[in-house]
Amino acid sequence: MKASGPTRPPLAGQHFQVAVIGGGLVGIAIARECARAGKRTLLVEQNDFASGATSRSPRVFSALPALEGGNLGFAREILRERDLLIRDFPHLLQRTHFMAAVGNNSPRSPLSVRTSLWLYRRIAGSSIDPAAFELAHKKLERSLDSTQSFALLDYEDVVCDFPERLAAEWLLEAAAAGVVIRNHLQVLAIDLAHNRARGLLLRDWTTNTEERIESTHIINASGAWVDRLCQRSSIKLRKPLSTGIRSSYIVVSYFPGAPSTPLLTDGHDGRPLSIIPWNEQLLVGPIDTVDPSDPGRIAPTPTEIESLQKSLFKLFPKARTARPEVRFAFSGIRSVPFAPGLNPANASGAHALYDHEADGAARLISVIGGSLASARIIARDCASKIGIRDSSASLAKAAHASALLDQWASELAHAGSISEDAARSILEWHGARSEDIARMARSSMELRTPLCQHTDHIVAEAVYAYTQEFAVTLGDVLLRRVPVALGPCWSESCSREAVLRIGAVVGWNDQAAGAALESFETERTAFLQRSRTAVKLTTAAD
Predict the structure, then answer these.
(1) Cα 217 to the chain's mean position, in Å?
(2) Nearest Cα to 45, choosing from 60, 71, 73, 26?
């Protein structure tokens, strides 16, 4: 069995009606929308799907930024879309009790925040038990900085711990609709002829070969690379299309008094700050900065990391004493519509579609901006822009209520000859597709083996990622399809263990296993910036 899954047929010389560049959540949604309308569609991504801004986000699907920006109609549209996502993917998106803490030193007034959240609750609704408010308030009040007085305000929003998994689900739906899917395939240039975009020059990094394809319409949804791709293709822009906003985060271990529910507040410098319980850890950030540099080489600066820790210590004095471990830090970069001298605090989640006909590249559309929550809205707008009307509605799925999870886990454990803990872990990431993984696991003990001693996730999930979910590298699997390597206990020894267990099933020899391990550790270190931050943060904020 090949670790890279099914062989990828060459693309050279093929013609598509739509070619989508960029495999973030937005690009995947666009390709799926076009294919469901009957268009022969290609989706290409230079790295791996969801490896950019999608996996480097605050992991919250919210309409609050649109509301606070004064766009009430767009906020309502996001909320309608979000309700459909919760219906379709209840294992990935959960309604969650949030709190906002507005201190007496905050640049925002408690009244303005209270008004925004009141309106948000009115249009979004809320299912939070009021009794939970009081308990959460008391716990948080005991932990927050006693030198400030805080107004604590409640609302409900939606968390998606792993939007990478949502991307994988959409990829499978896109493939079922007919999309030709390629990751690790870079667009070197957009072909232009007679003032029209005609096709793409591609480099397949899995074979190190170049190919050309033709396409009637081309959609540049490459995010932070949108302007660079135009420049590489000799498309002369009258002004930049986008501004890159780099968002930096730290992930820390729990400490006594840490918030148990997502918290929105202000950092020590007055900038907005969120603290999100995530993956048995705390996600703290962001610090937003305008960054025009190469999106492929971004990283949080030592100053940003120190500032985030200082904010955490200022808000929670017990954290200074407890010294929570900083597991890792990372940065993501997103594009927003270009504005000279943009203040990152004023960058909204709005999106824009730019038609390049006036630039001598008719039938090329660039997508700028957007958010995880608005991905399917952007997809419909984009499809409409190229003349697609009334494309297929989202697939109806049977939502499994949380009350049935125990029964479902028990049935899955029996079907796959695995433990109920393993079955529950698989269900939380794979939903209805868990049954396919359970059938695979039943066939051998090696497939039922945990990926490492710290996790209930099993080798069958990794093999499923390779054979069904378009994973090519070990990083594609362990950082995005089965993201166990983002957990609090993962280490280099876990990576070696996973390589041995996966390799025993897919047939890696010693050389292939060594290459997979080396490549994975290089990607993981570059993404998570663990080694660089550990020394710095032991003395930060003293």
Answers:
(1) 26
(2) 26
| pLDDT per residue as tens digits for the range 242-263 | 999 999 999 999 999 999 999 9
CB 271 within 8 A of CB 343: no
User: Helix, strand, coil shares of the chain as percentages rounded to 5?
Assistant: 45, 25, 35
Distance from C-alpha of 433 to C-alpha of 448, rounded to nearest angstrom: 16
Q: pLDDT for 367-384, tens place per residue?
A: 999 999 999 999 999 999
Residue type, 248: S
Length of the chain: 542
Closest by alpha carbon to 253, among 61, 452, 530, 50?
A: 530
pLDDT mean over 455-462:
98
Please say whether the beta carbons of 122 and 155 come within 8 A: no
pTM: 0.94
For residue 252, the one-letter residue type is V
Alpha-carbon distance of 148 to 102, in angstroms, equals: 10
Reduced to 3 states (helix: H, G, I; strand: E, B; else coil), residue 289 is strand
Rounded Cα–Cα distance for residues 128 and 526 (Å)? 39
The Cβ of residue 429 has, within 10 Å, a number of other Cβ atoms equal to: 23
Amino acid present at 187? V
Please, what are the domains in the chain?
15-53+164-241+349-385 (3.50.50.60), 78-160+243-333 (3.30.9.10), 402-532 (1.10.8.870)
Q: Judge whether 55 and 30 are in contact, CB under 8 Å.
A: no
Could you tell me the sign of the dihedral formed by the alpha carbons of 71, 334, 161, 398, in that order? positive
Neighbour count for residue 68 (Cβ, 10 Å): 17
The whole-angstrom separation of Cα 120 and Cα 130 is 17
Q: Angle formed by the axes of helices 25-36 and 375-385, to 10°?
A: 50
Compute φ and ψ for 275, nearest 5 degrees: -125, 110
Please check whether residue 223 is in contact with residue 45, taking contact to mean a CB–CB distance below 8 angstroms. Answer: no
Which helix H or strand E contains 265, and what residues bound it?
strand 263-266
Rounded CA-CA distance 381/5 in Å is 33
| Residue 37 three-state SS | coil
Do residues 431 and 92 lie in contact, with contact meaning Cβ atoms separated by under 8 Å?
A: yes
